[in-house]
Design a protein that fits this description.
- The protein is of the alpha+beta class.
- The protein has four helices and five strands; from the N terminus they run ααβββββαα.
- The longest helix has 43 residues, at 14-56.
């Protein structure tokens, strides 16, 4: 009976009245459609990237692993992803990794840039500590108390 006793609000006319009644519902429907559309588009893009990566994953391809290591594929089965991949990290060092641990295929230039050493980088020069550096307070000031320490 409480609801029957309250007066009905005055309804607006035209577009404002329609939007006042159904605006949130229309906005919700638009957001749901956008969510499904963007999700579908992202899935298609990821599938295309995976297919492209699988096509390039041939023995001899240089790869970047999830852990940040560069290597060369020795053995990889693109059809059965449950099998592990064998990647050579250094000459004679072949590791067995999960087939999906390969982050991406890298071009030769990227690995060459990372492997190049800066001239003079192999020489490590040690510089003596400057004499003007202050020592910590505990070392600098001797204890002048006459009391015996426990």
């Amino acid at each position: 009976m409480l609801f029957a006793a309250t007066p009905a609000p005055a309804q607006a006319d035209g577009f404002a009245g329609f939007f006042a009644q159904y605006g949130l519902l229309i906005l919700l429907l638009i957001l749901i459609v956008f969510m499904f559309w963007s999700s579908r588009r992202r899935q298609q893009r990821m599938k295309a990237e995976q297919e492209e990566k699988a096509a390039k994953m041939l023995p001899g391809a240089k790869v970047l692993l999830q852990g940040g290591l560069y290597g060369t594929i020795v053995e990889y089965d693109g059809d059965d992803l449950s099998k592990s991949a064998h990647v050579e990290l250094a000459p004679g060092v072949v590791v067995e990794v999960h087939s999906q641990a390969v982050l991406r295929i890298v071009e030769d230039e990227a690995v060459a840039d990372a492997d190049e050493q800066i001239p003079g980088d192999d020489v490590i020069e040690s510089t003596p500590a400057p004499e003007s550096v202050e020592k910590p307070a505990a070392e600098a000031a001797p204890d002048t108390d006459d009391k015996p320490k426990a």
